[in-house]
Specification:
By secondary structure, this protein is mainly alpha-helical. The protein is built from 3 helices and 3 strands, in the order H-E-E-H-H-E. The chain is elongated, with a radius of gyration of 18 Å. Bound molecules: zinc ion.
């Protein structure tokens, strides 16, 4: 089964862009173009994104705290910290677009 398959009607109705924009389990999801029922990125994507953001956030704190002690890190801090913050926005979207299956949206009625 393709990761772009709608969990409601079984049609391969999503593409990387619409899947990336469908959000996580805790979002209201995106309606399937075929059947109109809402789909989200499933547990795998949600857990991955949570872990990734946690690690990236820890890396930001680590860089911030350690930069004064480590000469090369002090130089790279200006690139690493914004890079990590931007990656926290982009990486989950990329992962949503290309990995993990879609699931039915739990939050209904929006
Ligand atoms: Zn559908």
């Amino acid at each position: 089964m393709s990761i772009y398959t709608c969990p409601h009607c079984g049609e391969k109705s999503f593409n990387p862009l619409s899947k990336a924009l469908a959000g996580q389990l805790n979002s209201k999801g995106k309606p399937c173009p075929k059947c109109g029922r809402r789909c989200v990125n499933g547990k795998g994507a949600t857990i991955f994104n949570a872990v990734y953001c946690l690690l990236a956030f820890a890396a930001v704190i680590f860089t911030y705290l350690k930069a004064p002690d480590i000469p090369w890190l002090g130089y790279w801090e200006l690139i690493i910290v914004p890079g990590l913050l931007i990656s926290m926005l982009i990486v989950p979207k990329l992962v949503n677009a290309f990995f993990f299956k879609m699931e039915q949206a739990i939050k209904a009625g929006y």
